[in-house]
Amino acid sequence: MSVQKKETYHFQSEVKQLLHLMIHSLYSNKEIFLRELISNASDAIDKLRFKSISSPELYKNDIEMNIQISVNKAQRALIINDNGIGMTRQDTIDNLGTIAKSGTKEFIHSLKNENNDKNTLIGEFGVGFYSSFIVSNKVSVKTRYANSDISKGVLWESSGEGEYSIKNIIKKNIGTEITLYLKEEEEEFLDTWRIKSIISKYSDHIMIPIKIQIYDEKNKTYSWEQINTAKALWTLNKSSITEKEYKDFYKHLTNDQNNPLTWSHNRVEGKQEYISLLFIPEKADWDIWNRDNKHGLKLYVKRVYIMDNSHEFLPNYLRFIRGLIDSNDLPLNVSREILQDNRITRNLKQALIKKSLNMLEKLAKNNTEKYQTFWNQFGLIFKEGPAEDNKNINKIANLLRFASTKNKNSEQTLSLQEYISTMHEKQEKIYYITADSYISAKNSPHLELFNKKDINVLLLSDRIDEWMMNYLVEFEGKKFQSISKEDISLNALAEEKKINNHELKTEIIDFLKKAKNILKNDVKEVRLTNRLTETPCMVISDSNEMTTQMAKLFSAAGQTVPEIKYIFEINPEHNLIKKICSIKDEDQFKKWIYLLLDQSLLSEKGTLKNPHKFIARMNQLLMQ
To answer: Model confidence over 139-187: pLDDT tens digits?
Structure first.
């Protein structure tokens, strides 16, 4: 049978940029290329095992699945061979000639950034094969898809300079064989001891045996020596696993070069039998807010790899957790569709949520510094919890952290337990304020009463905070209260009687009447207040009205928002109010009332419908 003629193709443009950066920019840790190729080979074997569940003809059980490494010093060649799923001709073009994964442009941009750990980025983006060109002048790939005819082998070759060639060959065995023709200065990677050290460092916990070809000088014979432990770490007894082994396994599992903050390893037997190994990373993924972000646990069934990124086992607010679950109860041919509507999955999800929250509670209790690292990285994501998981809302609330008026800076370090323990003796509720920024919240006129009474107020300035507080109703019997909304507890807190007309001077009574008449269509109510000390006036929302921040959220989402009718509160003790009381000119008095309202709205909302009118009115009054 004739072998097909060799054809030449051009790389996708992103691959060209990537290869250029790989070859010319990455010198700090070249050994990562072997980590990536071993990881790809392991994935190919896992895929074959999984596909053979539904298609037994793909894999014969009498064949040992392994990865073999050999060297040819005469040709300066390093060969990595696996007997995994292999690739068809089209697979080879798709996988080695293009980068299908979204986010490639972001990756290339990140790779150019000198501040990034480029070795970590390679693993995160799944472009590890191209790291071969860091150390190679030429790369040759021979591959054959499982259960295909021996004549369906494929040879792919490239020197990494813009194009590659491909042709059909006869290949006896299924799987993939990659040959790297190393550069002269990279001959260290032909030494057996160097290869062993790299495998030990990065790939020791891969469950597939990794073997290296050894030459016996005395007997003039070759043999294969296994160089990794090839044990499923999570199946071992916890007491037999060292801290270093957990950390190394995490790095292998996630391609994260940082150590995890903490982890939880559990074996459960009884009605349901499973093992879970959960990790909390030290640093958030670069694309954790991207819709294409792949999150979730790696799923095994009876030690057989099934799929990555199984998000069915954890809710979205815990999407930062990495790790795996190995179930004895799910079927081997389980699919994502089956997982989504499966009683076993639902039970496992509840158990894993509980273990995740317990892990965070333990970290918060035993290592506040590490917990703060967690919160700084993942707090915004965790704040989605109250809306998503009402069943565990008390545990979630206990793990939240806040900035407050008694903090010296904007760092969110205060727990609700700590807040309650320092509450004012007459304080009935947990007080908070939401705003666009920490500075805006910290300087709000709503805080004047609380600063005067030395009462702590939570300062919420993340965009999600207003949404979160709709679901966070109370904590340990104490209700939450926004200080920008009307509430009876605020009057009790002030320890002052309601302002009565007979206690007021005639000027203030007249001022109030005229202001109400002027603003009757613009606000819900005009009234005097004792809550202000430094500010002449402010606006607050009625207890049944939507808050300002919630209105902003709806507006940003493209929703129609009804106009909020505010309550306009005036401080009768402020000198500016006393000054305006003496103004006899009705037109000038009207301008002052609207100026005060606009000032209050600007402070509350951060914007005005007509800022030019506000400026013109202020300039007129300044000139007078």
So the answer is: 999 999 998 999 999 999 999 888 899 999 999 999 999 999 999 999 9
CATH number of the structural domain spanning residue 463? 3.40.50.11260
Chain-centre distance for alpha carbon 246 = 22
The answer on 151 and 47 residing in a single domain is yes
Best CA proximity match to 385, nearest among 344, 420, 346, 356 = 356
Q: Work out whether the CA dihedral 149, 152, 99, 204 comes out positive or negative.
A: positive
Tokens (6 digits) for 444: 């709000």
DSSP 3-state of 176: strand
User: What are the pLDDT digits (tens) for 265-282?
Assistant: 999 998 889 999 999 999
What is the C-alpha separation between 450 and 278, in angstroms, rounded? Answer: 43
Instruction: Mark whether 211 and 272 lie in a shared domain.
Output: no
Query: CA of 311: how far to CAs of 50, 145, 391, 440, in Å?
Result: 19, 29, 19, 37
In a domain, 389, yes or no: no
What is the crossing angle of helices 118-125 and 32-54, to 10°? 10
DSSP characters for 479-538? EEEETTB--HHHHHHHT-PPP-GGGS-HHHHHHHHHHHHHTTTT-SEEEE-SS-SS-SEE
Rounded CA-CA distance 2/105 in Å is 41
The rounded distance, in Å, linking the Cα atoms of 497 and 248 is 66
Q: Which one, of 571, 595, 606, 404, lies nearest residue 499 by Cα? A: 571
Q: Which amino acid is at 505?
A: K
